[in-house]
Amino acid sequence: MMRKWIAYLFAAFIVLGFGLTGWENVSAASASNVNQEINELKKKQDNLHDKKSNLKNKKENTEAKIAENKDKQVTVNSAINKIDQDLTETRNAIKSKENEIAETNRQLNTLKKQIDNINNKIDKLKKDIKKLKERIEKREELLKDRLRAIQSNGGSMKYIEVIMGSNSFSDFISRSSAVSTIMEQDKNIMETHAKEKKQLEDKQAEVEEKKKEIEDKKTKIENKKASLESKKQELESLQEQLDKQMNKKEEKLGELKKEQNQLENYKMSLAEQQQVVKNQEAAVNKAIRMAKQRKEELNQLGNEANGSGSFAWPASGYITDYYGSRGGTHPGIDLGNATAKGGGNVPIKAAADGVVTRAYTSSSYGNVVFITHVIDGDKYETVYAHMKYPPMVRDMQVVKKGQQIGVMGSTGDSTGPHLHFEVHQPKWTYSKQYSTNPLSYLP
């Protein structure tokens, strides 16, 4: 906004500085002076053209950099998306390994309990074997005693002597049965001894084998757990690397976005500068046209002064307030009109040829137009305030005497429909120090 305002001010300076100053000097200057002014304006026009071309190149280069920046952002965003996907997969893999490790820990705990149970069985079995060994040792001693007894009596023949030494048949039967019983008991003792010994040995072998099997399984699971822990560490290391890559990419993306903002702001600055140069070019072109037009007038009229020598009434109607009234603070005259009071439209016209220096809406003047004139070599600025509608002319527009510029109204600081008309020589100021009585110039 500030740059546009500067552009308008510069344009006004060009037109009034070159155009209107030319008008003042025209009354006493020759066509050669006008040619010199045109040449100077053309030099400024060439400079502005070069500046415009330079700004265009800068803007195109900036746009190319912005496009390149956006391409880099796309690449970085793609890399970030890929890293984010890898991170998700890695985190899932870590979670999976943690679940497997938890399962192996559960299996190891189960196996430890089984091993504890087997160890308890082995301990009990060892106790049973110890007791059995004691029984076996006792049986072996008993058998040894019997064998020694048999051997000392001549071996198995003593059994015959026992039988043959019977006194009767019934005694024979009794002694034979006793010998058979003793022999059968010895046999049973030997068989039981061998059977129990084999059972214990088989059971001990079975338990030892089961223990070995469980311990082998435990070793495998522990190896699996170690492998899982190792893979988990590798995945965690990968996750750490991916996190670092992600941080770097996000940092790079932040830098690219910052650079893009700077480039976009610079591009906007260049666009504003282009607008300023465009307005300057328009002002210079207008000044050139006005100078050429003045040159033609000189060729036709010689060195006559510009202007008709007088102002025209800016609107029809009657004076409702004079210059200097209200304790000397009224800087112009007020013109009323019955049609305007009744709501009708009364045209407001330019009092003389000139250039619109401002056309806008003011809090005090309402819809207002300022026009600069040069009459008989003297510069004036007229003010047309409280227009009903926005001005019909624009800044820097060239207007002719009697050309409609608005409609009588009551906008701004006004108590009813009228035209507030001011004349300042040579220009309007905020303090209105150059205000003059308009009636001095009106026919």
UniProtKB/TrEMBL annotation:
MF terms (GO), sorted A to Z: metalloendopeptidase activity
Entries under InterPro entries matching the protein: Cell_wall_metabolism_enzyme, Dup_hybrid_motif, M23ase_b-sheet_dom, PcsB_CC
Sections of the chain in a coiled coil: 31-153
Keywords attached to this entry: Coiled coil, Signal
Domain M23ase beta-sheet core residues, every copy: 329-425
Residues covered by the Peptidoglycan hydrolase PcsB coiled-coil domain: 129-203
Residue ranges of the region described as Disordered: 194-215
Domain of life of the source: Bacteria
One Pfam family of this chain: Peptidase_M23
Listed name of the protein: Uncharacterized protein
Species per Swiss-Prot/TrEMBL record: Lentibacillus cibarius
